[in-house]
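Page header: ASSEMBLY MODEL / two components / 647 residues total.
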Amino acid sequence: MNKNTLLYAGLILFGLAGAFIFPAYKLQLSFLYILIVLAMTWDVQGGQMGYNTFGNILFFGIGMYVASSTQIAMFFSLAEWTDAGGEKTFVHTIPQFFQGFGVGILLAGIIPTIIAGVIGYGILGLRGHYFAICTLALGIAAGELAGGIEIIGAGQGMTVPVWPKGFGSNASSSQFLYYLSFILALVTFITLKWAYSTRFGLVLNAIRDNEDKAEAMGIHTMRYKIIGWMVSAFFVGIAGGLMGHINGYIEPTEIAFAGPTFGVFMVLMAILGGKGTLWGPLVGATLFHLFKEGFWTYFLGWQYVALGVLIIVIVVYFPEGVMGWLREKYPERFGEVVDEADLKAQVELK
Amino acid sequence: MDLLIFQAPILMVQASMDGILLGILFALIAYGMALQWGVMNIINIAQGELVIMGGYIAYFMYLSGIHPAFGVIVSPIIMYCVGWGMYKLVINKVVDKDLFTSILATFGISILAQQLMNFAFGADVVVAQSNFGTTMLFNNSVTLPNAKIFSGAVCVISAIILVIYMKKSKLGRAIRATAQNARAAKILGVDTEKVYAATFGINAALCGIAGACIAITFTLHPYTGLPYTVRSFMIVIIAGLGNLPAVAISGMGLGVFEEWSDYLLGTEFRIAAVFSLLVIILVYRRFKLARKREYLK
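Prediction written out in full:
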């Protein structure tokens, strides 16, 4: 237990001090926290519940659009803002910016949650690959639809309100976003850790292992599936809202509803770290971020080729992930007792 | 906008004709997908990329001065080898895993293929001019490019050849046996590994034919593969595995739906309409098949 406390304290300390230790990598680190949130929330469906979704990107994009359009629309006309494009004719004052920011981020969490609840009943009834393809289509359809709506900038996208002049120094914008994303990652981690330790987590695992049997035991599986999706949607939506501010710019298919990039990244991160574990997505996201930055630095131009190869290698050769591999190797550290006789019997059976 | 149908009914005839000819292409791609889905239980997200790759082979011939229509012969031969190689390198390792593994692995292949095509041919929208001319119908108010008629005919002929091949040949029988029960087929001496490789190759070859037709009639772009995958998936789930007439009909239906939505909603919503239709169909199917919770009284 003592070791664990040390680990948690170390991670929190790193998060709090990170902005000062690596001032040049602040945005990279905030990006990492967002990726951790994406991976952990994907794991609620993909790992714990056994529903392999490509559709969580939908909430990411909606959160992104909701956060910045709310922030704009509270004080200015949204249509005029998008018409003006990059020109900074409309400037938020300091209180306006923070009021808008707060309300926007809050709505970025709430609206995707509601949407998840509404569409969940239809979509979560699908099983297996039908669910996977349906959610894939959902994300892409949302991106294409957003690309056709004029008021949020259509295909050109929209700019996000800039940090108000005269408040703090130049660096305070990235510092602010750094701490917000860190807090988001922390809250997500704590919430999920708590949720997995309750009846809710057990039900999710029961759904993964055998949904029909779980239903026969009297569990309203649909209710739990929808709640699980809503929890994911809440955190992913807020992550999207923050991501909009980190980017400073929203574009429908490449940034907001980026199914082929973020939508697949979150799956990969969870698989790389080991799906169905609490720590797996966190480890996976960190490793993946390092890989990705390495590709972008050393294979510039070929980064997507390297990414494609990485996907194939992870999925084909390393499907159990880091945590799964560690679990195989050191089962006693995970509190599992290996029965030698049982192991021998299994080998003989093979 | 809703009045557009009544204002110019002849344009709807035009859209329907275009849609049917387009739908035949979709049906051919979907038949390939149904084949490998049925035999290997794999969903190939890179299906669209195989189509685009086949198209670029025809485009490459056009660039080298050969008439692109010959692409419908050359492209399937090359694509068969590509499909065979793809099977040997990646797919044979995911055949016996769960479906999601194959979805992700082929997603990786699709990203890879997109980028390689982007390097090879650039990110511009290209088309291979066939100079086939156009046919005028109904007092010159409906125009049909001969290239579209040609591609429709090619697809129908290749589908017929494939059906006969699957019925009569030894390999075709082996493929059908493996689809029914891979284990039993193995016991009776069918080399399932070879059958799988051949199935994937045939699927890629079908995509190659469709791609060559698309190069002549429509446009090619390295990143437009995914909609073809989704369309074929949609056709397969509506028509079921291994039901060719149903595949053909639902393919044409999809083609008509797409042309109509393109025409009535606007081109920018075309892809959105396809993907939304898939979601709607899946959700409808789920409610249709849903079991009801009932209580004993």
